[in-house]
Amino acid sequence: MSLLFFLYFACVIVVTSVLVVALRNPVYSALALLIMFFHVAGLYVTLHAEFLAAVQIIVYAGAILVLYLFVVMLLNVKRDERYHVQAPAAAFLGLVLFTEIVLLAFQRTYQTGAAGPPEVESAGNTETIGEVLYSTYLFPFEIASLILLVAMIGAIILAKKTLAEPRQP
Amino acid sequence: MSGTELLIEYLTRYFPILLFIVIALAFGVVTLVISYLVQPKYPEAEKLSAYECGSEPFSDARMPFPVRYYIFAMLFVIFDIEVIFLYPWAVTFYKIGFVGLVEMLIFIALFLVAYVYAWKKGALEWD
């Protein structure tokens, strides 16, 4: 029965992912991406990764997608201006990857059922992450803050040139 | 847990979220359908043109936006990620105790540096 949920989420993810590259209007592509993000979050919930699902919605659907939309608007991507010469190369690479996945799926046997990360029954997912993150992985956590600081300074410096320019009348 | 038990647990735990999604979808769809069914239809060229608060539409909406919007989005993403780190910290606050508080203070201090930098550089100003 939980397979039903997986199949629903997986099908929607595949369909919307295809739509992201297939739709002619880039804004529609971004909206398809939004639906995909939400369904990936649903997939995380079925895997007992509730915190990851929340991150998926807050960061990806809430923030990253806005960035994508702004890039689309910034670069003024018109419809029908895509699908250039890279289409055959992309098709070839896609075929190679697809063949690889099919070969892997049929040649190896995977353990089903109890596989995957061990579930923590007593505490919630977020609590477990918090306990580990703020004790064992303390240093990477502080480094993350530093990396974000660098990212922010980089973004401001990259855009500073445009900011300093006088506004067009 | 067996599959069925897990499913029942999920449904009870996530039923409010499911309800929210269904209500949100239904609100949009039902509003559109009802207004489509009820509205009188007298199409005219002037009526069907884009409504721009009374002024004449002069160009396509797909024009390049200023890069300022992008900076705000970028800053939003970075502070959004900071908030993400605050959630597990808040949940485990009593368990990690004073050390956790100091860790988070260092973390937030670095973000404060970024914030002051953005402020000083005028990234938060519109003009």
Description:
The complex is a heterodimer of chains A (169) and B (127). Chain A has 169 residues and is mainly alpha-helical. Chain A has 2 domains: 80 residues, Four Helix Bundle (Hemerythrin (Met), subunit A); 45 residues. Helix content of chain A is 75%, strand content 0%. In chain A, helix 2 packs antiparallel against helix 3. The radius of gyration of chain A is 21 Å and the shape is globular. Chain A starts with a helix and ends in a 5-residue tail after the last helix. The mean pLDDT of chain A is 81. Chain B is mainly α. Chain B has 2 domains: 61 residues, no CATH class; 64 residues, Up-down Bundle (Methane Monooxygenase Hydroxylase, Chain G, domain 1). Chain B has 4 helices and no strands. The model of chain B has no long low-confidence stretch (mean pLDDT 83). Chains A and B meet through helix 3, helix 5 and helix 6 of A and helix 1, helix 3 and helix 4 of B.
Q: Please give the domain count of chain A.
A: 2
Overall shape of chain A: globular
Distance between the termini of chain A: 62 Å
Total individual domains of chain B: 2
In which range does the helix fraction of chain B lie? over 70%
The rounded distance between the terminal residues' Cα atoms of chain B is: 59 Å
Task: Please supply descriptive tags for the structure shown above.
heterodimer; A: 169 residues; mainly alpha; Four Helix Bundle (Hemerythrin (Met), subunit A); 2 domains; 75% helix; 0% strand; globular; B: 127 residues; Methane Monooxygenase Hydroxylase, Chain G, domain 1
Q: Summary?
A:
Chain A is mainly alpha-helical. Chain A contains 6 helices and no strands. Chain A folds into 2 domains: 1-80, Up-down Bundle (Four Helix Bundle (Hemerythrin (Met), subunit A)); 125-169.
